[in-house]
Design goal:
Blueprint: H1 2-19, H2 25-41, H3 44-62, H4 65-72, H5 83-102, H6 106-129, E1 137-138, E2 152-153, H7 155-179, H8 185-209, E3 213-215, E4 222-223, E5 227-228, E6 231-232, E7 234-237, H9 244-265
Antiparallel strand pairs: 1-2, 3-4, 3-7, 5-6
Helix pairs in contact: 1-2, 2-3, 2-5, 3-6, 3-7, 5-6, 5-9, 6-7, 6-8, 6-9, 7-8, 8-9
């Protein structure tokens, strides 16, 4: 019954997102599979937390979109998510959901909250940071870098990351009350904050160091895309396989690990 309910809910959400152009067709299929697993192997805590991330991130990507259009030309992935981006953001959480179904333990839940806080914090930081009037600074050197530069952070974006992580913790706590899940409220809040900040800054650090980056031969900008200004770009640094999806997945795992270690310490 849980699997059927999960499939129905996932179909409605994924179909609606595809209709609203928040997901590509491949992204909608991936979201359907993922949502089904989240509810079937888990419950409302897992599925609802995933939904909070997806809905909030989709709404933020549409907020003042005209002001972010130029920046998005430099990004490998934009507000319309494909299957790779869906699994990069929710794949680690899906594995934790399955692990918890096989071997129930509160540690999986704290790690899951950390994972979802990380991807939420990173998305919120990107969307809000892109609207900052102050130029970003490199997470490595602290020097001012052009807007849209991988590894660039702003005060507004960092604050948004913290708020995003706490938002996940808030809704997760409410879902635990509804589902009567065995998880300490303090652990959930700390997991959300720690996972969110750790994941967001890990994403910035990876973006500034090993993420593959290209340079446009026309405008000279450093971008994540293979084509810019109508011309092919050339690789200037980073590992070829370390694209935006890989960075997101690894950052989410770091956020989950931070939350799990904090839960162990407590």
């Amino acid at each position: 019954m849980f699997w059927l309910i999960g499939a129905l809910c996932a179909f409605v959400v994924a179909g609606g997102a595809y209709w609203k152009r928040s997901l590509t067709l491949s992204g909608a299929v991936a979201a359907f599979v993922m949502g089904t697993v989240y509810f079937g192997a888990g419950n409302l805590l897992w599925f609802g937390t995933l939904l909070v991330f997806f809905v909030s991130s989709s709404l933020l990507s549409k907020f003042k979109q005209a002001n972010k259009e130029e920046l998005e030309k430099s990004y490998a992935k934009t507000g319309k998510r494909d299957a790779g981006q869906v699994f990069a953001n929710g794949g680690a959480g899906m594995l934790l959901c399955i692990f918890h179904a096989v071997w129930p333990h509160p540690g999986w839940i704290y790690a899951f909250i950390g994972v979802m806080a990380a991807v939420t914090a990173d998305t919120w930081a990107t969307e809000w940071g892109g609207l900052s009037r102050r130029p970003p600074r490199s997470v490595l050197t602290g020097k001012i870098v052009p807007p849209g530069t991988s590894g660039g952070v702003t005060l507004m974006g960092s604050a948004a990351a913290a708020v995003g992580g706490l938002a996940i913790a808030l809704f997760a706590w409410l879902f635990t009350l509804w589902t009567r899940t065995d998880a300490a409220w303090l652990g959930l809040w700390l997991a959300g904050l720690a996972g969110g900040l750790a994941g967001a800054f890990a994403d910035s650090f990876l973006g500034a160091t090993v993420q593959v980056m290209y340079r446009c031969p026309v405008c000279g900008k450093d971008v994540e895309v293979l084509e810019h200004c109508g011309r092919p770009t050339r690789r200037i640094r980073g590992w070829r396989w370390m694209n935006n999806d890989a960075v997101n997945f690894i950052s989410s795992c770091i956020g989950g690990l931070a939350a799990w270690l904090l839960a162990l310490a407590l």
